[in-house]
């Protein structure tokens, strides 16, 4: 193990470089962007935690005329491009606005936060209040926006106003960087003020339209909001998404970069594990790892070399999209989710030009959302007769981390849904010893579930536990009883009765009854019921066998 400083949660490029924290060189992004300087606006969309903010901080430090960044970029790829550096490094006024913190349960709260972020941007440039080339009215307007005393119109035009003032002061065009531009709209959609926030964002984006003070702009976000909804009238607009190939190597870690990190940290033995958990994303022609996950796991390994992989991404992203997707689920969606959870893929139509107010208007939109936000990725190397239908993509779950997020979300959904189902007929059948009715009711509930893990026994154990949980019973799963571990034990202490279920799974439908008999035999041989005979008046033992979404239940006769 080597002593390297892994910067987790630090997206400030200057801080990383000044403190000599570990950094994967992504400065090639600068040269790539400057190849097409005629493009006024470049929109880069990637899932969260793929390095967008750090990339934007790097751009700010490279271009900002107020900085001297030569030492920050020393030894990095871009420093070898001497002519480019002389022409562009610290040569332009830069406006860098992050909208990732703009949130609120109502419009007024969110608008206040937006005004605060814009005010903070103005404060970074409050030297303009002393500028000899700006007039008193211009300075008054600048001060009002800075101190959050301006009206809504002024806030909507604030980026355009500041670009004009900077242009006038420096006599140079301005570079505009907007990070996480779609967060305010996403939060507004979730909290019911979409139209109000959309109006504000349209106003802000007027700075991109026919603005002679603008050299170029780079904008990042998760979704490419339909151009007509927010970027109306913007000329020379180019988007770079996960389906493109131009910039994909600069967001996320490619295999060679992960290999280098593992060599530097002396954790090459963890390569296969890291690949299984955090690789699997296919952006254009590039296969990439989630950089946040890789760095988080390496940090944990440095403290504890035996540390297991964890779902770091889950703790930083809003997983409500999966839940809303499942709530929407019809039989078609259920079947597709089961296929994905079993390691397969689905062929699905994808629309990259979404609007937040119509995300839940169709199944296609929801699949597109899961794809664009990183919960699904393109499946490569599939065998498909002929070409994929136009506009469709083969989708799959990228890695074990995302599979875990799906599993936990689905499990929680089932536990909550099961509590709402009418289970009285099932409970009555259990306590009366009516195995035929239990079979019928269980089969009905099975058809309402989303199964995964190829119907392994752990799925059926979770299914059984979920049915009885929250119904006033004490539910035990795989607890030691007698001479072994029973499947599910349901205790009704108030009425002095207990039901023991031993579950088996079969891969062949005709073997249901045979597996039922095996389960009952196991209950008998391992004496699962013995622990309860003294404390309960009635002990019911059931063998249950599952085949996909069918089951058979048999009761052990006294």
Percent helix: 40-55%
Order the strands across the largest sheet as they lie in space. Answer: 2-3-4-1-6
Q: Note the overall shape.
A: elongated
Whole-number tally of structural domains: 3
- Low-confidence region ranges: 481-485
Biggest sheet character: 5 strands, parallel
CATH architecture of the largest domain: 3-Layer(aba) Sandwich
Q: How many H/I helical runs?
A: 23
Q: SS-based structural class?
A: alpha/beta
CATH class of the largest domain equals Alpha Beta
Structure explained in plain terms:
- The chain is α/β, with parallel strands linked by helices and 558 residues long.
- The protein has 3 domains: 25-247, Rossmann fold, CATH 3.40.50; 320-405, no CATH class; 421-555, Trna Endonuclease, Chain: A, domain 1.
- It has 23 helices and 19 strands.
- Helix 10 runs antiparallel to helix 11 (194-204), helix 19 (400-420) runs parallel beside helix 22 and helix 20 packs antiparallel against helix 21.
Comma- or semicolon-separated keywords:
3 domains; alpha/beta; elongated; 23 helices; Trna Endonuclease, Chain: A, domain 1; five-stranded parallel beta sheet; 42% helix; Rossmann fold; 558 residues; single chain
